[in-house]
């Protein structure tokens, strides 16, 4: 699909759009953090604060959220985290209808680990193992902190990729999906691997994480977007692949302040929806801690601090106000319900 052109007056259109909420929301990507629990020891070591079901309920108050999907949060024990979230849902402390658990699919005991995770909760629908690696972690490159310890590219390193694919192949028979968090440089390798396993539904996390665009029309942005577009096209060609639209401050830091940065981001979001179709795209909050951290793990952009969950969904809804009701229903609820079978 061709890039969505930017209107020179788009900032006026965005500002003028009626700030309304979707009719209903399935928030298909958020986190609870329990750094004092053994299953979140890594979060504790990183100094992360607790983020509870009660805090999420307060942050989402007034929003038409019907169901949610809890995504693993650097869990050291996928089964332990799944059991913890399942207990919260069972006692009515949250609206979690599906759980995506952490599992190192490259490990020799991946099959046993998956069995343990599924035994921990009937709400488990999928697995995430964070994969974004593009060189040693330094806080500046796209490599995620979760990859710091193993420093391995499980999609492009031949031996590591083979081990990971053996684990990935186990998901289909267990009826599990995979949340694919990666960086653009890995997308073509990911598409090749996923194509060999059509029985595993895959959803790209965070719009594929194009990296820190400047919105200045410069060569660096052009190169980053070229790599992202090539990789996204390869993934979109696979019918079992969907895409989440969230944590967009990674793509365009500072976009909540509006102006050319929001114009660029809105264009990329609409381009993604055009590429995959609304039935394979889903907006979500990625909510944990606060708006700045939810918009970008770094949480270091001052303009993001005022972002609330309500204002985030209002902005998302405004960007797609021109689409039909059926498409908007898919983007905010239906696509997530289909993908996670909830």
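-> sequence recovered:
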């Amino acid at each position: 699909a061709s890039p969505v052109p930017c209107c020179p007056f788009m900032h006026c259109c965005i500002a003028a759009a009626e700030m309304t909420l979707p009719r209903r929301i399935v928030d298909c990507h958020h986190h609870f953090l329990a750094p004092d629990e053994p299953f979140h020891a890594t979060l504790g070591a990183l100094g992360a604060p607790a983020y509870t079901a009660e805090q999420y309920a307060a942050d989402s108050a007034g929003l038409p959220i019907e169901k949610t999907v809890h995504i693993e949060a650097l869990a050291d024990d996928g089964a332990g985290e799944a059991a913890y979230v399942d207990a919260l849902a069972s006692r009515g402390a949250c609206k979690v209808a599906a759980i995506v658990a952490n599992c190192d699919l490259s490990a020799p005991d991946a099959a046993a680990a998956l069995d343990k995770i599924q035994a921990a909760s009937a709400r488990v629908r999928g697995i995430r193992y964070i994969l974004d690696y593009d060189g040693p972690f330094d806080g500046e490159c796209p490599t995620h902190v979760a990859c710091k310890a193993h420093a391995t590219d499980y999609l492009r390193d031949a031996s590591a990729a083979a081990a990971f694919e053996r684990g990935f192949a186990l998901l289909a028979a267990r009826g599990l999906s995979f949340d694919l968090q990666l960086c653009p440089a890995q997308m073509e390798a990911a598409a090749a691997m996923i194509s060999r396993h059509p029985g595993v539904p895959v959803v790209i996390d965070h719009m594929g994480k194009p990296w820190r665009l400047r919105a200045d029309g410069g060569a660096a942005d052009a190169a980053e977007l070229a790599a992202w577009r090539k990789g996204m096209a390869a993934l979109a060609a696979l019918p079992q692949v969907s895409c989440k639209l969230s944590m967009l401050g990674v793509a365009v830091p500072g976009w909540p302040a509006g102006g050319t940065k929001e114009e660029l981001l809105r264009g990329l979001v609409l381009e993604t929806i055009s590429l995959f179709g609304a039935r394979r795209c889903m907006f979500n909050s990625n909510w944990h801690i606060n708006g700045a951290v939810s918009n970008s793990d770094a949480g270091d952009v001052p303009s993001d601090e005022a972002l609330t969950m309500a204002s985030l969904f209002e902005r998302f809804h405004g960007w797609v106000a021109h689409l039909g009701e059926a498409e908007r229903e898919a983007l905010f609820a239906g696509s997530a319900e289909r993908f996670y079978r909830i």
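The longest helix spans residues 219-236.
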